[in-house]
């Protein structure tokens, strides 16, 4: 229906991923005592960013293949008319 | 809990997207079919994830983690026995009738197959149920926000009284859900459910990772828990030798057959998601696609519960958050699960043996506080709120459709224009949410009202699957038979509840209010057996009444009954898109997990 769901998902995860990554890169080390000393903000932020970007790529690929299908259909219709 | 700006920012981003989806979809809502059935245009994978998310309500995330902490891996029976087989069945065998009949709702199918009174009974009880379920979600969420002190800091800053937190939480969550459904209808709900699905995975996966790492992996976790916690089938032969207090027949028939098939195969809340699919094969694949993450969900929701109970027990003073503020006043608990505190006396609640009653519902929230630094904490909390809201939204969309098509159009205003029904759907969304708020407040006033209502719903729901099974697979079943069967099944459930009692309970809301002729080892066993009785009585009575009443004409039942409907042809599809193959693969996966964690 109208909108590709992967677009808002991809965009949201990219935004949240960037937020977490940037925050993780500049945050004090002490706050990671709870997470076993691992900078989970940085690590998980990067994972989410990657997921978001892959989703956005899917949107791009989806659009491309749709256009391809449309031009193919149009070409076939033109050939049939001849 | 005190949140910092990064946590608020993440939460804010999520809410912007939730409402943004509604706004973006508004212009596509031209007909009532667009609004109520997403124009029957959604691809299978999206329907599948929404099918799963709609069920991810309050009971799911908080409740299954709580149950994991209480019973251990045996909780996975609610997934591998209590969901997956039914999901495969509805996809392969029932969807051809739901989708193929072009019924717009489950009650409408009942009218096409049986008669008006059967539909009316189902539609009205279902509509009432969705309102209360959504109210319960709302109440539980507001309560959790209060208990975790999520808004306390913000309220102090804005100089608002902390007594307002509960009300503000209710109103805010109601407005957000109302907003996106009002604008984009079922499509909006489905899209948001998919978003929520990914968010819940993103929020809980790091929790499982950190939790497992700190207890020394699965091995370490197993070593620090009693053996019954890591085996789902141990001691199942007898009710007294396993933590659930249920024996294998009660489990497989009560949970695995009656309750699970009754929910996944007849509840419009989930079936509506499959009806929105863009083709018959997509509709059939919807529950099968949903079954894959469903099988794996125990990792996300049960494991944190197990870890919470396995962690070293805190000193009975307090639990400290990342920044050193005290969050939950710990009493003598176990792991990081505190004991329940009596609200009036402020003392620890004790059970009949004098041991403190643990507040298992805090397993997930305390795990989040225990492991997540600020930043990730915002994400985890947002995931938790998302799970509550998807439960709420699922109920609201099911309500507005059943109200508009099965109650309003059928009994109040039969011949209005499509625009009018679209308008009615939006209005139904508004008063559905308003009634949910009323239900949430009713829950705060009368502590027992929710227990009582859930009991009533259990009585009404238990026999349903017998009606659908006979309706779809036995052409001789009649409308009078179905109606009589449903009523007598519900009556059987009521009587069974009135005559039995779980061990340790007093006669009353827990049962035994007529007389106590049988004691069950646990409340769960009693629930399962109530369902088994209700189902069996409905099944038998429907057959008996059908045999003595006039059969329906065969030509009226084409597309509604198995023997009179051409089988959907799926030869043109590649093997991985054929429902039968997918179903077998899903069942094999569930079976192998049962064997691994036996």
Text of the CATH class of chain B:
Mainly Alpha
Main pleated-sheet profile of chain A: none
Number of domains of chain B: 1
Most strands sheet of chain B: 2 strands, antiparallel
Q: What's the CATH architecture name of chain B?
A: Up-down Bundle
Side-by-side strand order of the widest sheet of chain B = 1-2
Instruction: Output the CATH topology of chain B.
Output: Sodium/glucose cotransporter
Number of helices of chain B: 22
Give, in order, the helices and strands of chain B. Answer: HHHHHHHHHHHHHHEEHHHHHHEEHH
Domain unit count of chain A: 1
Structural class of chain B: mainly alpha
In percent terms, what proportion of residues of chain B is strand?
A: under 5%
Count of alpha/pi helices of chain A: 2
Total strands of chain B: 4
For the largest interface in this structure, which chains are involved and how many residues does each contribute? A-B, 29 and 39 residues
Please tell me what the overall shape of chain A is. rod-shaped
Helix content of chain B: 55-70%
Poorly predicted ranges of chain B (pLDDT <50, ≥5 residues)?
A: none
Give start-end ranges of low-pLDDT stretches of chain A: none
Total E-strand runs of chain A: 0
Describe this structure in words.
The complex is a heterodimer of chains A (82) and B (598). Chain A is mostly helical. Chain A has one domain (6-81). In chain A, 77% of the residues lie in helices and 0% in strands. Chain A is built from two helices and no strands. In chain A, helix 1 (6-26) runs antiparallel to helix 2. The longest helix of chain A has 42 residues, at 40-81. Chain A is rod-shaped, with a radius of gyration of 21 Å. The two termini of chain A are 34 Å apart. Chain B is mainly alpha-helical and 598 residues long. Chain B has a single domain, classed as Sodium/glucose cotransporter (Up-down Bundle), CATH 1.20.1730. In chain B, 66% of the residues lie in helices and 2% in strands. Chain B is built from 22 helices and four strands. Chain B has a two-stranded antiparallel sheet with strand order 1-2. In chain B, a hairpin with a 5-residue loop joins strand 1 (318-320) and strand 2 (326-329). In chain B, helix 4 crosses helix 16 and helix 10 crosses helix 16 (376-412). The two termini of chain B are 38 Å apart. The interface between A and B is medium-sized, with 29 and 39 residues.
């Amino acid at each position: 229906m109208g909108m590709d769901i992967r677009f808002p998902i991809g965009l949201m995860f990219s935004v949240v991923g960037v937020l977490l990554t940037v925050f993780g890169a500049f945050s004090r080390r002490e706050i990671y005592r709870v997470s076993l000393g691992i900078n989970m903000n940085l690590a998980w932020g990067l994972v989410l960013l990657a997921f978001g970007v892959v989703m956005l790529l899917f949107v791009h690929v989806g659009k491309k293949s749709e256009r391809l299908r449309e031009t193919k259909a149009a070409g076939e219709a033109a050939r049939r008319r001849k | 809990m005190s949140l910092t700006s990064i946590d608020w920012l993440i939460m804010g981003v999520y809410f912007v997207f939730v409402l943004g989806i509604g706004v973006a979809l508004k212009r596509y809502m031209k007909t009532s079919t667009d609004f109520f059935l997403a124009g029957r245009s959604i691809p299978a994978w999206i329907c599948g994830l929404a099918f799963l998310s709609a069920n991810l309500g309050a009971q799911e995330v908080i409740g299954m983690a709580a149950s994991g902490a209480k019973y251990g891996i045996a909780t996975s029976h609610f997934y591998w026995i209590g969901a997956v087989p039914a999901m495969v069945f509805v996809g392969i065998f029932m969807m051809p009738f739901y989708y193929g009949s072009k019924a717009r709702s489950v009650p409408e199918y009942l009218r096409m197959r049986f008669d008006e009174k059967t539909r009316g009974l189902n539609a009205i009880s279902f509509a009432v149920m969705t309102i209360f379920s959504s109210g319960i979600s709302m109440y539980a969420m507001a309560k959790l926000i209060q208990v975790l002190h999520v808004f306390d800091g913000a309220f102090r800053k804005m100089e608002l009284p902390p007594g307002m937190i509960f009300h503000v939480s209710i109103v805010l969550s109601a407005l957000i859900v109302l907003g996106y459904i009002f604008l984009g209808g079922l499509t909006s709900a489905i899209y948001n459910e998919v978003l929520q699905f990914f968010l819940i995975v993103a929020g809980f996966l790091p929790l499982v990772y950190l939790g497992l790492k700190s207890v020394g992996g699965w091995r370490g976790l197993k070593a620090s828990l009693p053996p019954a916690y890591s085996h789902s089938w141990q001691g199942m032969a007898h009710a007294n030798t396993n933590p659930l207090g249920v024996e294998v027949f009660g489990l497989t028939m009560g949970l695995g057959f009656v309750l699970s098939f009754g929910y996944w195969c007849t509840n419009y809340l989930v079936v509506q998601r499959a009806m929105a699919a863009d083709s018959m094969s997509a509709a059939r694949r919807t529950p099968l696609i949903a079954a894959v993450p469903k099988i794996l969900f125990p990792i996300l929701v049960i494991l944190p519960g197990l870890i919470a109970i396995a962690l070293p027990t805190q000193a009975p003073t307090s639990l400290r958050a990342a920044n050193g503020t005290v969050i939950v006043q710990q009493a003598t608990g176990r792991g990081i699960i505190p004991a329940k505190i009596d609200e009036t006396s402020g003392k620890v609640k004790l059970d009949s043996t004098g041991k403190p009653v643990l507040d298992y519902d805090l397993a997930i929230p305390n795990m989040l506080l225990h492991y997540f630094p600020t930043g990730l904490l915002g994400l985890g909390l947002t995931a938790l709120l998302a799970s509550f809201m998807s439960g709420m939204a699922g109920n609201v969309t099911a309500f507005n459709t059943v109200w508009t098509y099965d109650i309003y159009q059928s009994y109040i205003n039969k011949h209005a224009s499509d625009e009018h029904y679209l308008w009615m759907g939006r209005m139904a969304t508004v008063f559905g949410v308003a009634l949910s708020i009323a239900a949430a407040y009713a829950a705060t006033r009368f502590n027992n009202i929710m227990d009582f209502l859930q009991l009533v719903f259990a009585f009404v729901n238990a026999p349903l699957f017998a009606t659908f099974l006979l309706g779809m697979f036995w052409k001789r079943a009649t409308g009078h038979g179905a109606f009589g069967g449903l009523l007598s099944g519900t009556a059987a459930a009521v009587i069974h509840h009135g005559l039995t009692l779980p061990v340790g309970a007093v006669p009353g809301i827990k049962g035994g209010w007529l007389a106590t002729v049988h004691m069950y080892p646990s409340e769960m066993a009693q629930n399962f057996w109530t369902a088994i009785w209700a189902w069996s009585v409905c099944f038998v009575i429907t057959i008996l009444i059908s045999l003595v009443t006039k059969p329906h004409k065969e030509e009226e039942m084409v597309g509604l009954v198995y023997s009179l409907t051409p089988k959907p042809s799926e030869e043109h599809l590649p093997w991985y898109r054929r429902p039968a193959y997918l179903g077998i693969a899903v069942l094999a996966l569930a079976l192998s997990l049962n064997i691994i964690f036996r």
